[in-house]
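Q: Hi! First time asking for a complex rather than a single chain. Here are the components, and I think there are two in total. Is that enough to go on?
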Amino acid sequence: MKKQTSRAVLVVVALAFILPLMIILLWSVTVSWPFPDLFPREFGLRGLAQIFEEGSRALESLYTSVKISLWVTILTLMITIPGGKALGIYDFPGKAFIKIFALAPLIISPVAIGMGIHSTFIRLGLTNTELGVVLIHIVPGIPYGIRIFTNIFELVGNQLEEQGKVLGANSFQVFFHITLPTILPGLISAGSMIFIISFSQYFLTFLIGGGSVITFPLMMVPYIQSGDRTMAASYSAVFIVVTLCGLLAIEKVLKLYYSKSSGIAGAFYTRKKVKS
Amino acid sequence: MKRKVQIGIITSMILILATSCGGHEDETKFNLEEMTWEEILEEAEGSEVRFYGWGGDQAINDWLNGFLAERILEQYGIILEWVPMNIDEILNKLQGEKQGNAVGTADMIWINGENFYTAKTNELLYGPFTEVLPNFVAYIDSEDVEVRYDFGFPTEGFEAPYGKAQFVMIYDEAQTPDPPVNHEEFLTYAKQYPGELTFPAPPDFTGSAFIRNLIYDIVGYEQFIGMEADEEVVREAIAPAIDYFKELKPYLWRSGETYPATIAQLENMFSDGEVRMVMAYNSNLVSQRISSGIFPETSTSVIFEKGTIGNGHFIAIPFNSPNKAGALVAINEILSVEVQSSKYDPENWGDLPVLNNDKLSQDERAVFNSVELGKGALPQDVLLENRLPEVPAPLVPIIDRIWMENLLD
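A: Yes, that's all I need. Here is the structure of the assembled complex.
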């Protein structure tokens, strides 16, 4: 009985996620779909053809988007891993304040942040460059990274690292052979999160990129705003497929890499897994 | 020791950030007066021009990225890059760059009406430049009201005409064989089919134009030309029209308690068969929508017997454009017979041309006449004969506000 209810819940949840996606896919190849009809009346490739035609601007922007988001993911992880570790393991005055402060980009509207940073970036000559866009995308990713890594480090602690040091490993060895493998699950979830956040930025990209850096959302949003459902759905479908591929790639690469360098941390991680 | 090194690194980073805030002063000065057209052409060759504007229409985007970019590359070796971006976002960007005294990225912007008014009064535009363009001198009637004024605001050569739009209402002939042509018939029609007519609420651009068009039909348009932007004056002038809207309200979609927020929403409702009428500030939109399969085959456009509002849209050059020579050459090319006629073709865009008929040769006129109008569209001469001027730009937000106060709860 209990099993049946949980299965029903599962089906409902799955439908709630999958149905809207199906509708987007359907709209992307729809020419006309009048109101009372259950299915589109006419199909066509107007939207997808424009995206995939030869020399398409959309594909170019897709490449720019993926490139920027990958850089943002790497850089944000480099910032938030030490940040999360400090907050998760060490005690220092003002820790609670900094914990909340790290969430500021979520609390303050991105418009306000963007406008302020824009004028600074103008002076620094970072506007209208890909570097500027990468830097601004780091901002909204930081709260997620910090949050996830703080929790992970609170769980994992640093005893394993210290043990490694006692046994004579240097800082780099400790980091790559102990720290990274133990925080792998956090690395995957934070990495995917940051990738998606960067990939879907519209406002910050156009503000700092100024139209010189054209990412995929910059091409997509005008169609969503103007209400051309076929075009909007075509772009959205490509958007979803690419983010999914990005996520899978991040997970696969990290897992593959660290399943090879197992060692003590690998054992620690598998033991934990078995326990739970 | 380690601590000290860390603190040292952080302070030096802050110092570097602080000192590098010197700013860029190398504004490219560009002296139009001293250059001949040949020199401008030479300067522009091989450069890149970035054209910013509203990018929500696939047909327009394809025409700009396709025909126009190819033509400008072929003729002048200039790379035209079309950047889809909303005009208010562009103006924000320019404003920010002005405060930061920075060289911009936009060389041309697609603009008109209130936005031109805002841009020009905030000195965000470069100019005057139109008299430099050979095609402007050859083909454009610079004394024409629609060239000299944009929503009643003098253009003074700070923007070049790009195209003309005229307001039309679109009905499905199969459903509405005898569409209303004035405000009384519109009310009767609404009463006949309650809940099946509506329009986007302001500040939607098209919905706001529809309201002005009904106001014109009720109280006449003449009094608005040169009317001062005073709320009381406007309120009094449009009072009969506001009464009309109140009478109309209960017969609209959802009894007028809510209105579609955008014209896009209304278009979708029309193509879904939820409402009987849609409107457009582009007289050829209907044929383009029919050929993309979005509107029914029997859709047709209608204007009021007293006429409908028309406006022009323009191209301006931002004050901080990095490539003004390239922008001038591209704008000049846009004012050519070839580009204007290609733009007029409903297969491409269907935007009305801005060239003056009297200034065209026999052959050139034939080029425009050979453009085949698509299904449901009205011919250019019918539109031009029934074309009413827009109200002055500052009146637009006032009318919108008064309408919203009275009709939205």
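A: Residues 58-76 of chain B form the longest helix (19 residues). Let me know if you'd like any chain examined more closely.
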